[in-house]
Amino acid sequence: EIVLTQSPGTLSLSPGERATLSCRASQRVSSSSLAWYQQKPGQAPRLLIYGASSRATGIPDRLSGSGSGTDFTLTISRLEPEDFAVYYCQQYGSSPYTFGQGTKLEI
Amino acid sequence: EVQLLESGGGLVQPGGSLRLSCAASGFTFNIYAISWVRQAPGKGLEWVSSISAGGVNTYYADSVKGRFTISRDNSQNTLYLQMSSLRAEDTALYYCAKDWGRKYGSGFFDYWGQGTLVTVSS
Fold first, then answer.
1. How many CB pairs (< 8 A) connect A and B?
2. What is the CA radius of gyration of chain A?
3. What's the pLDDT band for B104 if we cut at 50, 70, 90?
4. Does B112 contact A at CB distance below 8 Å?
5. Which of A13, A89, B68, B105 has the smallest number of Cβ neighbours within 10 A?
6. Is the pLDDT of residue B112 over 90?
7. pLDDT confidence of A96, banded at 50, 70, 90?
């Protein structure tokens, strides 16, 4: 099973700043099969990025994903108030699909 | 508009059984794989099980294998999760999640329901 470790656990920033969230895999993630989700309190997760760098429908271009192999990054270039939430990475290159433990992005 | 509506959650004693349902609408249900993902209170996400578009291929996390059964009724646009031998650690919000990919799925999820809460406690 591929274990995903996200860092930092909590990231405290202000609107307008740049956020960099990390996701490290215990083994190589095949075919860059990595997704990022955003979850706000009381809501279901929302798909942001798939294939490590492809934005899902309706996701603004200030969010971007990068990385390959075992190291992946989600970058939010200019934080908006609606970006403060918990972010999860997920690998789907091998079974079982696994999620990271999450990064909380707080104001 | 894609909608996924879970139901069937509730309080059940350890060792008991429960069947969850997920009613889907707004997309062609029978051409997409679909999954269950759970989230324990205050915790992260855990993939539970997936089923291919036709219902023939099923996949399970080791933590539920042999106890949970995923199925689907494409004539009713409904996904099911039959849960038995329930344990306290199965307590979670169970989400139905549509796979982005068709047929056998891609493994990531573009639409999620709001979840149904399962509590296993005596």
1. 52
2. 13
3. confident
4. yes
5. A13
6. yes
7. very high
